[in-house]
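User: For a benchmark we're assembling, each entry needs the component sequences followed by a predicted structure for the full assembly. Here are entry 17's components. Please fill in the structure.
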Amino acid sequence: MSVKTLTIDGKMMTGVEGDTVFTVAFHNQVQIPRLCHLGGIPDVGACRMCLVEVEGRSKLSASCMTTIEEGMVVRTDTETLREYRKLLMELLLAEGNHVCSVCVSNGNCELQALAAYLGVDHVRVPYRHPRREVDLSHERFGLDHNRCIACTRCVRTCDEVEGAHVWDMAGRGEKLHLVADLGEPWGDSENCTKCGKCVQVCPTGALFTKGSAVGEMEKDRSFLKYIVYGRERHQWVKKP
Amino acid sequence: MSAKVKLATVWLGGCSGCHMSFLDLDERLIELAAKVELCLSPLVDTKFKDFPDVDVTLVEGAVANVEHVEMLHTIRARSKLVIAFGDCAVSGNITAMRNTFTVDEVMNRAYRETVAVVKGVPVGDDLVPKLLAKVKPLHELVTIDHYLQGCPPSADRIWELVTALLDGRAPKLERRFG
Amino acid sequence: MTMTSDELGERAEHELERQKTFRERLHCCTAAGCQSCGGDAVRASLKQQVKASGVEAQVEIVGTGCMGLCSKGPLVKRESDEALFLEVKPDDAQALIEASASPSLEARRVDPKTHPFFAGQLRIVLANAGTVDPERVESYLAAGGYSALAHALTTMKPGEVVAEVTKAGLRGRGGAGYPTGVKWQLVAKQLNETKYVVCNADEGDPGAFMDRSVLEGDPHRVLEGMAIAGYAVGANHGYIYVRGEYALAISRLQLAIKQAEKEGILGARVLDTSFRFQVELRIGAGAFVCGEETALLNSIEGKRGEPRPRPPYPPEKGLWEKPTLINNVETFANIAPIITRGSEWFSNIGTEKSKGTKVFAVAGKTMHSGLVEVPMGTPVRQIVTQMAGGIAGGGKVKAIQTGGPSGGCVPEHLLDVPVDYESLVAVGSMMGSGGLIVMDETTSMVEIARYFMEFCMDESCGKCVPCRAGTVQMHTLLQKFCDAEATEADLDLLKKLADLLRATSLCGLGQSAPNPVMTALRYFPHEFAACMKPTAKGASS
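Assistant: Structure for entry 17:
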């Protein structure tokens, strides 16, 4: 494995070949805003929050999908990027029905926290107020489509970590939505193992544990680290 | 000594929680009273028949009906600074949750499908101001000078904004919904 | 049965001999355009008349591909003097077959050599359209079909084929204009054993029907191009991804693949050589975004039709993570002529940076609409005013739109811009896949901008935030302009969103979605200004 050296926001950093810009920045205390990325599950580059400027590239690059190269010069926090991120956040807030004050995740929400971090004090585009459903058919968990930002963390976690592939996306454009199995109520899903991993990785209050009141839904993702670590090292395989 | 700053607070489509939070300024209210003249507010007796010319107006609540629209335009015309006071004013928030339904659905739910003291949906403009098809945050109608987020904004946040405005400095506000 | 390349020639000659036995051959357009206005009835009537007149041995009725002048269909071409008959009705059958004088038919006869719609054209891609029967492989063989493949397989090394395509200067006809030879080289140099060739036939731009006509009229040409590509880059498997709406193209392709397999042109031993190549059809379900190459690959793999971030580009990691060559229909249709006639011949056509020809689907308010194939460098004005005959009824051209929802408009005063990749980009539009929509003075450019944004909004896959949510907001703003309700603030926001989508969207659909709006704003700002209400005092900013 070869080590590569690159510059991120003026600081020299090193990473191992195959690492992404996001990961190297993260390990060097440079926090790049992100919503769809989550360490331990595959990346998709969908939320566009982690876009960075790479010298020599005409287009912005999603840092979660960009592997490091020797001598790369990356800027993660320019005026242009800040303005783009802010407007992206406003688009997200206007797209669904994100009412923090009545949300189970109020105070523990990545969307809410990132909006604050980006300095979003109001939303310039008109709110869409789409009519979306709440699926409470599952015995333990709930799905509120109003709060879903289509980051697909749940889809990837269920597929890649739990191996059940209950979740998928259906529809396109603004009608894009999360479906369980082939579009049935979550509670009717025969594939769902009721493990709750999807709930824990959801950045907002879209997936939640039933019985949580406003602000009570705190998510715990520590399991990801252990599972992924164990899997990479085949720790559950009996040695012959 | 210069004249006191003229302040007004207004309650549009909201729950008055932001005004309650304003009262949470507690003893700081006394300090504030020394600096501002509260010209108009749901918290005090109305001394003016009409909306007065003021320096600053804190507007709580979203724009939900035709009366709010008229009121907001008057406020804008007679206030040097207009502050969107709380999440409903900034984003529509809970007041705007009815936007996923039509006005008819909302009225039916409120007056027909539930236990009610009046029979049927009240009619006549003087009874209930006509609801807008969609509840809107203030900035979709008029220019807003400062946004004070929170449901409600904490007394500390309110204090920071008010004192910053009085001192003529930029407020250092935590920008967070909810 | 496997045909050798020698047998290929014999078969072609045999077919030519057969064709010569007829006194007259009448070519009936059987492409979708003529079919939709009664072409099938005309053909049936002609066949019936041949039988009734007892001239089966003297007159042959041939079904062919698109002849181009779609607005005047159904079209019938008389082979003996190449006369073209417009708006043919089943009643005309007798006059056509017996070559008897019919004043009504004569009035609808044009000479393609002098008619302005055809006169300026140079047909390479469409050379067989209107001559070859797309449902008979013999017909294609007689027109020299598969001889380029035979030539490449027997006399050229794969690297030489790549070099020839590179030297020809052919660029991708899907819109972006990436040099085809360079792309082939990228795939060819990959060391994987498994590689794929994919033909993008998911033509989706509103008003575009070039690829459809090629597939309907000359499906073997595309198969031949793909097989040559497969040989050149070292791939043994090809996929054609065609949209489900193109039912006729699909059935013709299915038939062509079957015929080619039966003849040993495709399969385990292509033309009795050691080269193995097979082609499979994949039918799209009507999502525009599947025309984006990485979304197309996902769709072939059976996944959701969503784009993947690039890099890695398909030549490195494409279908099932294997090196994959993706070219568009028209690009593949150019390959056989380049191999047959040489790169020098090809590179002498067109401009310095854009070689060969380009097929355009001319639609809109013109006198004639249909397919034209012109050498690169032809001024757009020539296509619009001469070939298409200008605005029907004598109105004034206001602007043209190329590149569909990813392109932009070109105003009348810039119509002298030559058809080439760089020039069209310089005026804010793009070559695109070949849709050319002509608009007259009555067209509202604001409405056009709104229409294309609505298209992108509906077709966004929804994967990335800017495209999914941004197109919706831009559409809302444009609707406000259409309703004359917009403000200065709306215009400002529209521009901000356009910039956001361009810079941050995941794939080309979102990145280019603002183009129609931006060019309309650039060239027709007064139309947007006229849709704005005066800003009231204290109104939102």
